[in-house]
Design goal:
Blueprint (H helix, E strand, L loop, with lengths): L6 H24 L10 H24 L8 H9 L3 E5 L3 E6 L5 H8 L14 E6 L4
Parallel strand pairs: 2-3
Antiparallel strand pairs: 1-2
Protein name: Transposase DDE domain-containing protein
């Protein structure tokens, strides 16, 4: 209870606090943080670590998406991750052919930034994202 704090400083302080609380609330809802998978502390710690990692990956992905940097993890998932499509693998590349959606051009444009990256985990293949010719 700081009665000497200026109104502007108080509003800024609580705005930052609200953003933190909102982020925690979104993580609890989207990643089911309030439903622990085990009573064993090590499993709960692992789940929490993986959840924080997933949240940070969603945030990094959202920063690459114009107009979506401030969207929730759930919204990013719905618009950009939960997309049906077809995956084809050949010797040099992995082709992800996604069904038509309103935001598909943005996904393709964003993922084209990584078109020349060779992924060790995929046998040094590149990834190519395209839009399907049918929906």
């Amino acid at each position: 209870n700081d009665f000497d704090i200026k109104t502007e400083a108080l509003v800024r302080k609580y705005a930052r606090r609200w953003l933190v609380e909102k982020s925690i609330s979104e993580q609890v809802e989207f990643f089911h943080l309030n439903k622990v998978s085990s009573s064993m502390v090590i499993k709960v710690d692992f789940d929490l670590t993986m959840t924080i990692l997933a949240h940070n990956i969603y945030r990094l992905f959202a920063l690459d998406l114009e107009r979506y940097a401030h969207q929730s993890d759930e919204k990013i998932y719905e618009k950009f991750v939960a997309i049906q499509g077809k995956v084809s693998i050949n010797e040099k590349e992995i082709i992800v052919d996604m069904k038509k959606r309103r935001d598909l051009p943005l996904i393709i444009e964003t993922m084209n930034n990584y078109k020349d990256v060779k992924y060790d985990i995929f046998g040094r293949r590149t990834m190519k994202f395209t839009g399907a010719t049918s929906s």
